[in-house]
Amino acid sequence: MNGKFPQHFLWGGAVAANQVEGAYQADGKGLSTSDLQPQGIFGAITPRTAGDSGIKDVAIDFYHRYPEDIALFAEMGFKCLRTSIAWTRIFPQGDEETPNEAGLAFYDRLFDEMAKYGIQPLITLSHYEMPYGLVKHYGGWGDRRTIDFFERYARTVFERYKHKVKHWLTFNEINMSLHAPFTGVGLPQESDKSAVYQAIHHQLVASARAVKACHEIVPEGKIGNMLLGGILYPLSCKPEDLLETQRQNRDWLFFGDVQARGYYPAYMQRFFRENGIQVAISEEDRQTLRETIDFISFSYYMSGCVTADPAQYETARGNILDMVPNPHLASSEWGWQIDPLGLRYLLNVLYDRYQKPLFIVENGLGAKDRVEADGSIHDDYRINYLNDHLVQVAEAIDDGVEVMGYTSWGPIDLVSASKAEMSKRYGFIHVDRDDAGNGSLERRRKKSFYWYRDVIHSNGASLKTRS
Fold it and tell me: How many beta carbons lie within 10 A of that of residue 278, not counting itself?
Protein backbone atom coordinates (compact mmCIF):
# COMPACT_ATOMS: atom_id res chain seq x y z
CA MET A 1 0.00 0.00 0.00
CA ASN A 2 2.98 2.31 0.37
CA GLY A 3 2.57 5.55 -1.55
CA LYS A 4 -1.05 5.12 -2.58
CA PHE A 5 -2.58 7.45 -0.01
CA PRO A 6 -1.93 11.18 -0.55
CA GLN A 7 0.51 12.88 1.80
CA HIS A 8 -2.18 15.05 3.40
CA PHE A 9 -4.87 12.35 3.57
CA LEU A 10 -7.27 13.08 6.44
CA TRP A 11 -7.30 9.96 8.62
CA GLY A 12 -9.71 9.93 11.54
CA GLY A 13 -13.06 8.90 12.90
CA ALA A 14 -16.69 10.03 12.91
CA VAL A 15 -19.33 10.43 15.62
CA ALA A 16 -22.62 12.32 15.99
CA ALA A 17 -23.69 14.68 18.77
CA ASN A 18 -26.88 12.79 19.66
CA GLN A 19 -25.03 9.45 19.87
CA VAL A 20 -22.11 10.52 22.09
CA GLU A 21 -22.68 13.82 23.88
CA GLY A 22 -25.47 13.05 26.33
CA ALA A 23 -26.20 16.08 28.56
CA TYR A 24 -29.45 16.28 26.65
CA GLN A 25 -30.83 19.26 28.60
CA ALA A 26 -27.57 20.79 29.83
CA ASP A 27 -26.75 24.49 29.44
CA GLY A 28 -30.04 25.44 27.81
CA LYS A 29 -30.22 22.72 25.16
CA GLY A 30 -33.70 22.20 23.74
CA LEU A 31 -35.42 18.94 22.83
CA SER A 32 -34.44 17.49 19.47
CA THR A 33 -36.26 14.94 17.35
CA SER A 34 -33.59 12.45 18.41
CA ASP A 35 -34.54 12.99 22.05
CA LEU A 36 -38.03 11.75 21.14
CA GLN A 37 -36.67 8.52 19.63
CA PRO A 38 -35.32 6.69 22.70
CA GLN A 39 -35.26 3.33 20.89
CA GLY A 40 -33.48 4.67 17.82
CA ILE A 41 -34.59 5.90 14.42
CA PHE A 42 -36.79 2.84 13.85
CA GLY A 43 -38.44 3.08 17.25
CA ALA A 44 -41.64 4.84 18.30
CA ILE A 45 -41.73 8.60 18.78
CA THR A 46 -42.15 9.16 22.51
CA PRO A 47 -43.03 12.54 24.11
CA ARG A 48 -40.67 13.46 26.94
CA THR A 49 -42.11 13.77 30.44
CA ALA A 50 -40.51 14.78 33.72
CA GLY A 51 -38.48 11.97 35.24
CA ASP A 52 -38.26 9.74 32.18
CA SER A 53 -34.91 8.75 30.72
CA GLY A 54 -33.33 7.20 27.64
CA ILE A 55 -29.87 5.83 26.91
CA LYS A 56 -29.04 8.78 24.66
CA ASP A 57 -29.64 11.23 27.51
CA VAL A 58 -26.18 10.33 28.82
CA ALA A 59 -24.87 8.35 25.81
CA ILE A 60 -21.11 8.09 26.51
CA ASP A 61 -21.03 11.50 28.23
CA PHE A 62 -18.75 13.00 25.58
CA TYR A 63 -20.12 16.42 26.62
CA HIS A 64 -18.12 16.20 29.84
CA ARG A 65 -15.42 13.67 28.89
CA TYR A 66 -14.34 15.04 25.50
CA PRO A 67 -10.80 16.02 26.66
CA GLU A 68 -10.08 12.39 27.56
CA ASP A 69 -11.54 11.14 24.29
CA ILE A 70 -9.76 13.71 22.11
CA ALA A 71 -6.48 12.72 23.79
CA LEU A 72 -7.14 9.08 22.87
CA PHE A 73 -7.91 10.04 19.27
CA ALA A 74 -4.67 12.02 19.21
CA GLU A 75 -2.80 8.99 20.53
CA MET A 76 -4.00 7.11 17.44
CA GLY A 77 -2.74 9.97 15.31
CA PHE A 78 -6.06 11.37 14.07
CA LYS A 79 -5.71 14.13 11.50
CA CYS A 80 -9.47 14.72 11.44
CA LEU A 81 -12.54 14.15 13.61
CA ARG A 82 -16.00 14.29 12.17
CA THR A 83 -18.74 15.23 14.59
CA SER A 84 -21.92 17.28 14.49
CA ILE A 85 -23.21 20.36 16.20
CA ALA A 86 -26.46 19.75 18.07
CA TRP A 87 -28.74 22.39 16.49
CA THR A 88 -30.75 22.56 19.74
CA ARG A 89 -27.68 23.61 21.73
CA ILE A 90 -27.47 26.71 19.52
CA PHE A 91 -31.19 27.40 18.94
CA PRO A 92 -33.11 25.34 21.53
CA GLN A 93 -36.52 25.71 19.83
CA GLY A 94 -35.14 26.42 16.38
CA ASP A 95 -36.88 29.73 15.76
CA GLU A 96 -35.15 32.03 18.26
CA GLU A 97 -33.64 35.31 17.08
CA THR A 98 -30.64 34.99 19.40
CA PRO A 99 -28.45 31.88 19.81
CA ASN A 100 -27.73 30.18 23.12
CA GLU A 101 -24.26 31.31 24.20
CA ALA A 102 -23.67 28.31 26.46
CA GLY A 103 -24.13 25.97 23.52
CA LEU A 104 -21.80 27.99 21.31
CA ALA A 105 -19.20 28.05 24.08
CA PHE A 106 -19.24 24.25 24.38
CA TYR A 107 -18.20 23.80 20.76
CA ASP A 108 -15.56 26.50 21.16
CA ARG A 109 -14.03 24.37 23.92
CA LEU A 110 -14.34 21.19 21.86
CA PHE A 111 -12.68 22.69 18.77
CA ASP A 112 -9.95 24.28 20.88
CA GLU A 113 -9.21 20.89 22.44
CA MET A 114 -8.94 19.33 18.98
CA ALA A 115 -6.64 22.14 17.84
CA LYS A 116 -4.24 21.35 20.71
CA TYR A 117 -3.48 18.06 18.96
CA GLY A 118 -3.67 19.28 15.38
CA ILE A 119 -6.95 17.44 14.71
CA GLN A 120 -9.06 19.14 12.05
CA PRO A 121 -12.83 19.27 12.69
CA LEU A 122 -15.21 18.03 9.98
CA ILE A 123 -18.56 19.33 11.18
CA THR A 124 -22.05 18.21 10.17
CA LEU A 125 -24.73 20.85 10.63
CA SER A 126 -27.62 18.40 11.03
CA HIS A 127 -26.99 14.74 11.87
CA TYR A 128 -30.26 12.83 12.29
CA GLU A 129 -31.84 15.53 14.45
CA MET A 130 -33.50 18.93 14.39
CA PRO A 131 -35.23 21.07 17.03
CA TYR A 132 -38.50 19.45 18.04
CA GLY A 133 -39.91 22.96 18.40
CA LEU A 134 -39.76 23.31 14.62
CA VAL A 135 -41.64 20.02 14.20
CA LYS A 136 -44.27 20.89 16.80
CA HIS A 137 -44.96 24.46 15.69
CA TYR A 138 -44.15 24.42 11.97
CA GLY A 139 -44.35 20.82 10.76
CA GLY A 140 -40.61 20.38 10.36
CA TRP A 141 -39.14 20.59 6.88
CA GLY A 142 -42.67 20.48 5.44
CA ASP A 143 -42.81 24.25 6.07
CA ARG A 144 -40.69 26.59 3.92
CA ARG A 145 -39.97 28.76 6.97
CA THR A 146 -37.65 26.03 8.26
CA ILE A 147 -35.26 26.96 5.41
CA ASP A 148 -34.78 30.40 6.98
CA PHE A 149 -34.35 28.95 10.47
CA PHE A 150 -31.67 26.57 9.21
CA GLU A 151 -29.86 29.32 7.33
CA ARG A 152 -29.81 31.45 10.49
CA TYR A 153 -28.32 28.52 12.41
CA ALA A 154 -25.75 27.81 9.69
CA ARG A 155 -24.65 31.44 9.42
CA THR A 156 -24.39 31.65 13.20
CA VAL A 157 -21.99 28.73 13.50
CA PHE A 158 -20.01 29.72 10.39
CA GLU A 159 -19.40 33.16 11.89
CA ARG A 160 -18.56 31.77 15.30
CA TYR A 161 -16.17 29.02 14.20
CA LYS A 162 -14.84 30.37 10.88
CA HIS A 163 -11.28 30.42 12.25
CA LYS A 164 -11.56 26.95 13.80
CA VAL A 165 -13.52 24.83 11.28
CA LYS A 166 -12.63 24.64 7.59
CA HIS A 167 -14.54 21.50 6.55
CA TRP A 168 -18.34 21.38 6.79
CA LEU A 169 -21.19 19.04 5.82
CA THR A 170 -24.84 20.03 5.52
CA PHE A 171 -27.20 17.08 6.21
CA ASN A 172 -26.16 13.60 7.30
CA GLU A 173 -27.29 10.85 4.91
CA ILE A 174 -29.80 13.24 3.36
CA ASN A 175 -31.34 10.49 1.21
CA MET A 176 -32.51 8.54 4.28
CA SER A 177 -35.55 10.84 4.57
CA LEU A 178 -37.23 8.62 1.99
CA HIS A 179 -37.17 5.74 4.48
CA ALA A 180 -37.39 7.45 7.89
CA PRO A 181 -39.19 10.78 7.36
CA PHE A 182 -39.38 11.80 11.03
CA THR A 183 -35.64 11.37 11.53
CA GLY A 184 -34.79 13.09 8.25
CA VAL A 185 -37.36 15.87 7.78
CA GLY A 186 -39.56 15.83 10.89
CA LEU A 187 -42.62 14.37 9.17
CA PRO A 188 -44.81 11.46 10.36
CA GLN A 189 -43.70 8.04 9.09
CA GLU A 190 -46.98 7.61 7.18
CA SER A 191 -46.59 10.87 5.19
CA ASP A 192 -47.37 10.58 1.48
CA LYS A 193 -44.68 10.91 -1.17
CA SER A 194 -45.64 14.43 -2.19
CA ALA A 195 -45.25 15.66 1.40
CA VAL A 196 -41.92 13.89 1.86
CA TYR A 197 -40.44 15.12 -1.43
CA GLN A 198 -41.66 18.67 -0.71
CA ALA A 199 -39.88 18.56 2.64
CA ILE A 200 -36.78 17.12 0.96
CA HIS A 201 -36.91 19.95 -1.57
CA HIS A 202 -36.94 22.50 1.25
CA GLN A 203 -33.93 20.73 2.76
CA LEU A 204 -32.06 20.78 -0.57
CA VAL A 205 -32.72 24.51 -0.88
CA ALA A 206 -31.53 25.02 2.71
CA SER A 207 -28.40 23.01 1.94
CA ALA A 208 -27.64 25.24 -1.06
CA ARG A 209 -28.18 28.35 1.08
CA ALA A 210 -25.74 26.96 3.64
CA VAL A 211 -23.20 26.33 0.89
CA LYS A 212 -23.54 29.94 -0.26
CA ALA A 213 -23.21 31.22 3.31
CA CYS A 214 -20.13 29.09 3.93
CA HIS A 215 -18.47 30.38 0.77
CA GLU A 216 -19.16 33.95 1.90
CA ILE A 217 -18.19 33.61 5.56
CA VAL A 218 -15.44 30.95 5.38
CA PRO A 219 -13.91 31.64 1.92
CA GLU A 220 -10.96 29.34 2.51
CA GLY A 221 -13.25 26.55 3.79
CA LYS A 222 -14.91 23.66 1.97
CA ILE A 223 -18.47 22.40 2.36
CA GLY A 224 -19.90 19.12 1.14
CA ASN A 225 -23.05 17.06 1.23
CA MET A 226 -23.38 13.63 2.82
CA LEU A 227 -25.05 10.61 1.21
CA LEU A 228 -25.92 7.18 2.48
CA GLY A 229 -23.92 5.19 -0.07
CA GLY A 230 -26.45 2.45 -0.75
CA ILE A 231 -24.89 1.05 -3.91
CA LEU A 232 -26.89 -1.75 -5.52
CA TYR A 233 -25.99 -4.48 -8.02
CA PRO A 234 -28.33 -6.35 -10.37
CA LEU A 235 -29.03 -9.81 -8.99
CA SER A 236 -28.70 -11.26 -12.49
CA CYS A 237 -27.71 -10.14 -15.97
CA LYS A 238 -31.37 -9.98 -17.05
CA PRO A 239 -31.94 -6.56 -18.66
CA GLU A 240 -34.98 -6.10 -16.43
CA ASP A 241 -32.80 -6.49 -13.32
CA LEU A 242 -30.26 -4.03 -14.71
CA LEU A 243 -32.90 -1.39 -15.46
CA GLU A 244 -34.50 -1.80 -12.01
CA THR A 245 -31.05 -1.47 -10.40
CA GLN A 246 -30.44 1.77 -12.26
CA ARG A 247 -33.82 3.08 -11.08
CA GLN A 248 -33.19 2.20 -7.45
CA ASN A 249 -29.66 3.62 -7.45
CA ARG A 250 -31.10 6.85 -8.82
CA ASP A 251 -33.39 7.04 -5.77
CA TRP A 252 -30.36 8.04 -3.67
CA LEU A 253 -28.02 9.43 -6.34
CA PHE A 254 -30.72 12.04 -7.04
CA PHE A 255 -29.66 13.86 -3.87
CA GLY A 256 -26.07 14.01 -5.05
CA ASP A 257 -27.16 15.08 -8.53
CA VAL A 258 -29.05 18.11 -7.19
CA GLN A 259 -26.36 19.15 -4.71
CA ALA A 260 -23.39 18.62 -7.05
CA ARG A 261 -24.95 19.66 -10.38
CA GLY A 262 -27.37 22.33 -9.18
CA TYR A 263 -30.64 21.17 -10.72
CA TYR A 264 -33.24 18.40 -10.70
CA PRO A 265 -32.35 15.65 -13.19
CA ALA A 266 -34.82 14.76 -15.95
CA TYR A 267 -35.38 11.25 -14.59
CA MET A 268 -36.87 12.74 -11.41
CA GLN A 269 -39.32 14.81 -13.43
CA ARG A 270 -40.62 11.60 -14.98
CA PHE A 271 -40.69 9.88 -11.58
CA PHE A 272 -42.74 12.71 -10.08
CA ARG A 273 -45.11 12.74 -13.07
CA GLU A 274 -45.71 8.99 -13.16
CA ASN A 275 -46.24 8.75 -9.39
CA GLY A 276 -48.51 11.76 -9.04
CA ILE A 277 -45.98 13.59 -6.86
CA GLN A 278 -46.47 17.35 -6.63
CA VAL A 279 -43.49 19.46 -5.52
CA ALA A 280 -43.67 23.26 -5.47
CA ILE A 281 -40.38 24.58 -6.87
CA SER A 282 -40.08 28.32 -7.39
CA GLU A 283 -37.77 30.07 -9.83
CA GLU A 284 -35.92 31.46 -6.81
CA ASP A 285 -35.42 27.89 -5.59
CA ARG A 286 -33.94 26.92 -8.95
CA GLN A 287 -31.49 29.79 -8.76
CA THR A 288 -30.54 28.91 -5.18
CA LEU A 289 -29.83 25.27 -6.06
CA ARG A 290 -27.12 26.41 -8.48
CA GLU A 291 -24.85 27.01 -5.45
CA THR A 292 -23.18 23.60 -5.47
CA ILE A 293 -21.07 21.71 -2.96
CA ASP A 294 -17.27 21.53 -3.02
CA PHE A 295 -16.97 17.79 -2.37
CA ILE A 296 -19.06 14.62 -1.97
CA SER A 297 -19.01 12.77 1.33
CA PHE A 298 -20.75 9.50 2.01
CA SER A 299 -21.18 6.53 4.32
CA TYR A 300 -20.52 2.98 3.19
CA TYR A 301 -21.32 -0.13 5.17
CA MET A 302 -22.72 -2.65 2.70
CA SER A 303 -24.02 -3.23 -0.79
CA GLY A 304 -27.12 -5.07 -1.91
CA CYS A 305 -28.80 -6.57 -4.93
CA VAL A 306 -31.86 -5.71 -6.97
CA THR A 307 -34.22 -7.86 -8.98
CA ALA A 308 -37.26 -6.92 -11.03
CA ASP A 309 -39.09 -9.78 -9.27
CA PRO A 310 -38.30 -9.24 -5.57
CA ALA A 311 -41.29 -11.14 -4.14
CA GLN A 312 -39.48 -14.48 -4.38
CA TYR A 313 -36.49 -13.31 -2.31
CA GLU A 314 -36.02 -12.46 1.37
CA THR A 315 -34.57 -9.04 2.07
CA ALA A 316 -31.74 -8.10 4.43
CA ARG A 317 -31.97 -5.00 6.62
CA GLY A 318 -29.01 -2.68 6.25
CA ASN A 319 -28.40 0.88 7.36
CA ILE A 320 -31.97 2.16 6.74
CA LEU A 321 -32.41 0.24 3.50
CA ASP A 322 -33.84 -3.22 2.79
CA MET A 323 -31.87 -5.06 0.09
CA VAL A 324 -31.91 -8.45 -1.59
CA PRO A 325 -28.87 -10.33 -0.20
CA ASN A 326 -25.91 -11.04 -2.43
CA PRO A 327 -25.29 -14.82 -2.38
CA HIS A 328 -21.55 -14.25 -2.80
CA LEU A 329 -21.05 -12.19 0.37
CA ALA A 330 -20.79 -12.90 4.10
CA SER A 331 -22.77 -10.88 6.66
CA SER A 332 -22.12 -9.24 10.02
CA GLU A 333 -23.92 -10.18 13.25
CA TRP A 334 -26.57 -7.64 12.35
CA GLY A 335 -27.10 -9.02 8.85
CA TRP A 336 -25.17 -6.29 7.04
CA GLN A 337 -23.34 -7.79 4.07
CA ILE A 338 -19.59 -7.25 3.96
CA ASP A 339 -18.34 -6.05 0.59
CA PRO A 340 -14.95 -4.28 0.55
CA LEU A 341 -14.78 -4.34 -3.27
CA GLY A 342 -18.07 -2.48 -3.28
CA LEU A 343 -16.33 0.52 -1.71
CA ARG A 344 -13.84 0.72 -4.58
CA TYR A 345 -16.73 0.37 -7.03
CA LEU A 346 -18.74 3.09 -5.29
CA LEU A 347 -15.78 5.49 -5.20
CA ASN A 348 -15.34 5.06 -8.95
CA VAL A 349 -19.08 5.47 -9.62
CA LEU A 350 -19.27 8.72 -7.65
CA TYR A 351 -16.07 10.15 -9.10
CA ASP A 352 -17.09 9.29 -12.65
CA ARG A 353 -20.49 10.89 -12.05
CA TYR A 354 -19.45 14.12 -10.32
CA GLN A 355 -15.72 14.72 -10.85
CA LYS A 356 -15.52 16.22 -7.37
CA PRO A 357 -13.29 15.20 -4.45
CA LEU A 358 -14.74 12.40 -2.33
CA PHE A 359 -14.61 11.90 1.44
CA ILE A 360 -15.48 8.58 3.10
CA VAL A 361 -17.00 9.87 6.34
CA GLU A 362 -18.51 6.65 7.70
CA ASN A 363 -17.40 3.03 7.40
CA GLY A 364 -17.13 0.44 10.13
CA LEU A 365 -18.23 -2.85 11.63
CA GLY A 366 -20.78 -3.13 14.41
CA ALA A 367 -20.05 -6.20 16.55
CA LYS A 368 -20.43 -7.60 20.05
CA ASP A 369 -17.02 -7.28 21.68
CA ARG A 370 -15.85 -9.44 24.58
CA VAL A 371 -13.72 -8.05 27.38
CA GLU A 372 -11.22 -10.69 28.50
CA ALA A 373 -10.31 -11.37 32.12
CA ASP A 374 -7.20 -9.22 31.79
CA GLY A 375 -9.24 -6.33 30.32
CA SER A 376 -8.06 -6.82 26.74
CA ILE A 377 -10.39 -6.86 23.70
CA HIS A 378 -9.21 -8.85 20.69
CA ASP A 379 -11.34 -7.46 17.86
CA ASP A 380 -9.53 -8.99 14.89
CA TYR A 381 -12.87 -9.15 13.02
CA ARG A 382 -12.96 -5.34 13.07
CA ILE A 383 -9.33 -5.07 12.02
CA ASN A 384 -9.94 -7.42 9.10
CA TYR A 385 -13.07 -5.54 8.01
CA LEU A 386 -11.41 -2.13 8.08
CA ASN A 387 -8.16 -3.38 6.58
CA ASP A 388 -9.96 -4.92 3.62
CA HIS A 389 -12.03 -1.79 2.97
CA LEU A 390 -9.01 0.50 3.20
CA VAL A 391 -7.08 -1.69 0.76
CA GLN A 392 -9.89 -1.02 -1.71
CA VAL A 393 -9.75 2.72 -1.00
CA ALA A 394 -6.08 2.57 -1.95
CA GLU A 395 -7.00 0.75 -5.15
CA ALA A 396 -9.59 3.43 -6.00
CA ILE A 397 -6.97 6.13 -5.44
CA ASP A 398 -4.73 4.20 -7.83
CA ASP A 399 -7.66 4.18 -10.28
CA GLY A 400 -7.44 7.98 -10.26
CA VAL A 401 -10.21 8.76 -7.77
CA GLU A 402 -9.54 11.88 -5.66
CA VAL A 403 -10.18 10.87 -2.03
CA MET A 404 -9.76 13.54 0.65
CA GLY A 405 -9.90 11.32 3.71
CA TYR A 406 -11.42 8.49 5.69
CA THR A 407 -13.20 8.78 9.03
CA SER A 408 -14.25 5.41 10.38
CA TRP A 409 -17.66 5.28 12.00
CA GLY A 410 -17.59 5.18 15.75
CA PRO A 411 -13.89 5.35 16.70
CA ILE A 412 -15.22 5.14 20.24
CA ASP A 413 -18.21 2.98 21.21
CA LEU A 414 -21.44 4.98 21.01
CA VAL A 415 -25.20 4.56 21.03
CA SER A 416 -26.25 3.07 17.69
CA ALA A 417 -28.66 5.14 15.60
CA SER A 418 -30.87 2.32 14.38
CA LYS A 419 -31.78 0.65 17.69
CA ALA A 420 -30.16 2.85 20.39
CA GLU A 421 -27.94 -0.04 21.51
CA MET A 422 -24.53 0.05 23.17
CA SER A 423 -23.96 -3.66 22.44
CA LYS A 424 -23.51 -2.90 18.74
CA ARG A 425 -19.96 -1.63 19.09
CA TYR A 426 -17.87 0.04 16.39
CA GLY A 427 -15.06 1.63 18.35
CA PHE A 428 -11.32 1.29 18.66
CA ILE A 429 -12.07 2.44 22.21
CA HIS A 430 -14.39 0.43 24.45
CA VAL A 431 -16.84 2.29 26.69
CA ASP A 432 -18.10 0.49 29.79
CA ARG A 433 -21.85 0.88 29.32
CA ASP A 434 -24.54 -1.64 28.39
CA ASP A 435 -27.90 -1.42 26.64
CA ALA A 436 -29.66 -0.78 29.96
CA GLY A 437 -27.39 2.18 30.68
CA ASN A 438 -25.32 0.43 33.34
CA GLY A 439 -21.56 0.81 33.55
CA SER A 440 -18.75 3.07 34.68
CA LEU A 441 -18.20 4.76 31.27
CA GLU A 442 -14.52 3.84 31.61
CA ARG A 443 -12.58 3.99 28.33
CA ARG A 444 -10.37 1.04 27.29
CA ARG A 445 -8.19 0.58 24.20
CA LYS A 446 -9.03 -2.41 21.98
CA LYS A 447 -6.55 -4.30 19.81
CA SER A 448 -7.86 -2.30 16.82
CA PHE A 449 -6.75 0.91 18.56
CA TYR A 450 -3.10 -0.01 18.04
CA TRP A 451 -3.77 -1.35 14.55
CA TYR A 452 -5.38 1.93 13.40
CA ARG A 453 -2.58 3.90 15.04
CA ASP A 454 -0.11 2.00 12.85
CA VAL A 455 -2.22 2.54 9.73
CA ILE A 456 -2.28 6.29 10.28
CA HIS A 457 1.39 6.50 11.26
CA SER A 458 2.39 4.62 8.09
CA ASN A 459 -0.15 6.53 5.90
CA GLY A 460 -1.65 3.19 4.94
CA ALA A 461 1.59 1.33 4.25
CA SER A 462 0.84 -1.17 7.06
CA LEU A 463 -2.37 -2.39 5.37
CA LYS A 464 -2.29 -5.98 4.12
CA THR A 465 -3.83 -7.49 1.03
CA ARG A 466 -5.59 -10.61 2.29
CA SER A 467 -6.78 -13.50 0.15
Answer: 11
3-state helix, strand, coil in the chain (%, to 5): 40, 15, 45
The 3-class SS string of 277-298 reads CCCCCCHHHHHHCCCCCCEEEE
3-state SS of 98-119? CCCHHHHHHHHHHHHHHHHCCC
Tell me which of 129, 244, 291, 362 is the catalytic residue: 362
What's the sign of the alpha-carbon dihedral 42, 45, 50, 51?
negative
What phi and psi values does residue 364 have, to the nearest 5 degrees? 180, 175
The answer to whether the beta carbons of residues 229 and 340 sit under 8 Å apart is: no
Helix (H) or strand (E) holding 146: helix 145-161
Q: What are phi and psi for residue 106, nearest 5 degrees?
A: -60, -45
Q: How far apart are CA 250 and CA 286, in angstroms?
A: 20
> For residues 241 and 243, what is the distance between their CA atoms, to the nearest angstrom?
6
Residue 165 and residue 20: Cα distance in Å, rounded?
20
**Comparing C-alpha atoms, which of 7, 3, 8, 4 is closest to residue 400?**
4
Give residue 17's identity as a one-letter amino acid code: A
- Residue 21 annotated in active site: no
Count of residues for the chain? 467
Report the SS3 class of residue 391. helix
The one catalytic residue in 173, 244, 291, 421 is: 173
- The burial of 453, by beta-carbon neighbours within 10 Å (0-12 exposed, 13-18 middle, 19 or more buried), is given as middle
Q: Which residues are bridge partners to 425 per DSSP?
A: 367
- Distance CA(403)–CA(397), nearest Å, equals 7
Q: Are 18 and 128 in contact (CB under 8 A)?
A: yes
| C-alpha atoms less than 13 angstroms from C-alpha of 160 in its C-beta half-sphere | 21
| DSSP SS3 for 323 | strand
d(CA 446, CA 380): 10
pLDDT of 432-459, one tens digit each? 999 999 999 999 999 999 999 999 999 9
Would you give the distance in Å from CA 284 to the centre of its chain? 29
pTM for the full model? 0.96
Dmax of the chain from CA atoms? Answer: 65
Distance CA 316, CA 371 (A): 29
HSE value, Cβ hemisphere, 13 Å, CA-based, for 146: 29
Check if 173 is active-site: yes
Question: How many Cβ atoms sit within 10 Å of the Cβ of residue 140?
Answer: 26
CA pair distance 388, 364, nearest whole angstrom: 11
Q: What is the pLDDT of residues 151-188, one digit of tens each?
A: 999 999 999 999 999 999 999 999 999 999 999 999 99
The residue that leads in pLDDT, 460 or 318, is: 460
Residue 385 belongs to what H/E stretch? helix 380-399
